[in-house]
Amino acid sequence: MTRPFTSSSPAGLEPPLLKARGLTAAGLAIVAATYGLARYCFGLFLPDIRAQFHLATETVGLIAGSSYIGYLAATFIGSWLSTTYGPRLPIILGGLAATLGMGIIALSTTPLILAAGVFIAGTSPGLSYPPFSDVIVRHTESSRQNTVYAWINSGTGFGVAIAGPLALYAGQDWRLAWFAFAALALMITVWNLIVLPPPQPTRRQRSIGVPTHVLMRRENGPLFTAALIFGVVTAIYWTYAVELLHTLTDDPQAPILFWIILGVAGISGCFAGGVVDRWGLRRAYFALVILVGLAVASLPLLIQAPAGIYFSAACFGSGFIVMTALFGIWSMGVCRDMPSIGFGMTFFLISLGQGVGPVLGGYLIPVFGEPNLFLAAGLLCFSLASLAPGKSYAPTNSEQA
User: Fold this and answer.
1) pLDDT in tens, 117-172
2) Alpha carbon separation from 257 to 94, 296, 306, 310 (Å, rounded)
3) How far apart (Å, rounded) are the C-alpha atoms in residues 117 and 102?
4) What is the C-alpha to C-alpha distance for residues 238 and 147, in angstroms, rounded to an integer?
5) Dist CA 201 CA 250 (whole Å)
6) Are 162 and 32 in contact (CB under 8 A)?
7) pTM of the predicted structure, to 2 decimals
8) In terms of Cα–Cα distance, which of 214, 219, 228 is closest to 393?
9) DSSP 258-300
């Protein structure tokens, strides 16, 4: 069995399995609250919100974009706080940001207040997600780290899956849904405060400056480049797939059902650790690049058949979540000494690409059309195969069970 990264803790100090499971469950829940609800849920409720506030298209874009700005800024802050003070502080701050931001959205009375809530909610995954790489490396057995991380990463799918049915039935009660999300985020934050180990800063943590040497390593080049391109490709799907459904189908329920299937399929990301352990990171990466690329490129071709639409959603939902897990495992493999720094930069670049993708698509759609944009994005995803992890991440015969 391959072990792409190992814990620096002595074997005798590794926690019992029950504690590892508690950390995994708490991490999955905080990712569901911050990513699945606080970050991705705004677009799902956007029609009702837009109608109530009479928002112009340009205003909607600015408000939605504020979430990306908040996330990008918070990613560096979360990684720095984790390295300096330990991971529990930024994780709890992220949970509180999700609670506050979603509460403000529920109570908003003007577009400006709404934008403030979306911005604060958007910071929450940037604060809480990267530090969990430190929690995994420090407090779980090395043989279980891939599996633990994959389960935590799949929290996005759980959150999206929860939001979908509420969007289907909430209707004009969208504020009630956001209140429920905020209350859930608060409970999850308290849970993490209880479960996460207390901070134990070391001399190295207190004296560390900006660890640019970690980010400038040669082996990081393919990882960071692939992360940026992956962000561009997947943002085109997240942003324009529902619009494509509205344009080419007459079923008003199709987009909501499409979203639910995305979330449910994303739960399969919990198996990413097992995929890496069995196949190795390199082979798993190749398989996921093909799966995501096919899901993106084929959607315009399958859109006339409901089964085809949902097949694309299932492939993309599972592929996206598992692929992000692979990026996390890859980053922790090349940045073993400071995992939250490499982890944070990797997901910063994915989000940067996700910010560039919709803007780029907005300029290309009038020229080439949405179907051709999806085809081009799928081909771009296939090109990521040239940036695969090195062969050192693939399991050797001796490592396989």
Assistant:
1) 999 999 999 899 878 877 887 777 777 777 787 788 788 888 888 887 777 776 66
2) 29, 17, 10, 8
3) 6
4) 26
5) 57
6) yes
7) 0.74
8) 219
9) HHHHHHHHHGGGGGHHHHHHHH-HHHHHHHHHHHHHHHHHHHH
